[in-house]
Write a structure and sequence with these properties.
Radius of gyration: 18 Å
Distance between the termini: 28 Å
Number of helices: 9
Shape: globular
Number of strands: 10
Order of helices and strands: EEEHEEHEHHHEHEHEEHH
Strand order of the largest sheet: 6-7-8-3-9-10
Structural class: alpha/beta
Largest sheet: 6 strands, mixed
Amino acid sequence: MIRLDRVTVRYGSGAHGIAAARDVSFTVAPGEAFGLVGESGSGKSTVLRGVAGLIAHAEGVVELAGEAMPRRRTRAQRRLVQMVFQDPYGSLHPNQTVDQALASPLRIQGLGDGEQRIAASLREVGLGPEHRFRYPHQLSGGQRQRVAIARALIVQPRILLLDEPTSALDVSVQAEILNLLTRLRREHGLTMLMVSHDLAVIAHLCERVGVMQHGVLVERTTADALASGDVAHKHTRELLRSNAGFDSAV
């Protein structure tokens, strides 16, 4: 469902240019959840934005559902993949109600049945009709992230990109959101690509994991291997030490 072949993303040009991601290659099967882990600045979120089409100057091949993505994507190609961002407050317009936030992607994609779709999307993420006409500041952090997930899923994508979707939330709420994503993935057959610096969060949702360092994918491994410490690269072992005691079953 996702194939990256030697994807490179540079910011700036000449002597001041920085390669935030270099020659990154991996595949994600339909229905699979793949995680990218690494320290801040390792390039993992840059890769995610390259897959989403938010970085037009990415080099290399980004292939989704068997189709190589052009630099300028069609409306149908953009509908195929949707993204949930790290900060649910920052990703929702403060002057838009939940109803307006959910109606906007339907309008952009030219999809009808807005009333039914909005109500169904809210139910899917555990929110009721009483939340529909509230503003972001009237919601808790967990509720805002549920709205962001509903907004991503309302156009029925096949691929969901997750950029640190729980890092801005309390620990108890993190577990609720991860369990919600697990259920939605199962019910909709979603393919997921998730970025996080937290190995426990990645291991909760993802079967396979890629480890990023200085813009390079240094190791591909599994969540089970992370939990057992059976990893090959020095940087992966350092990440395990920094996350000492993480429990993939949390």
